[in-house]
Amino acid sequence: xxxxxxxxxxxxxxxxxxxxxxxxxxxPPGPRKLPIVGNLFDIPKTLQWETYARWSKKYNxxxxxxxxxxxxxxxxxxxxCENIGA
Length: 86
Fold this sequence. Notes:
This protein has 2 helices and 2 strands, in the order H-H-E-E. A two-stranded antiparallel sheet has the order 1-2. By secondary structure, the protein is α+β, with helices and mostly antiparallel strands. The longest helix has 20 residues, at 3-22. It is 37% helix and 14% strand. The relative contact order is 0.14. The chain has one domain (3-81). Its cofactor is heme. Keywords: Heme, Iron, Metal-binding, Monooxygenase, Oxidoreductase.
């Protein structure tokens, strides 16, 4: 396989991922994520609720989104939001 064919295939793959990601519905706000690992290193090992409450105030939202190595995690920090989707 030639180098140009491999480069073209790689470019098409990246463009397809970009289009797929852009076509999803918007997610709630949350901390900036790192490539590949997302927010894995942002999640505290103890007293998680304190960090989630602080993020809730920072992003002015009762719902926070975290990316855990490609998997979405939604944190609900408000009683007003607990019945959404029920």
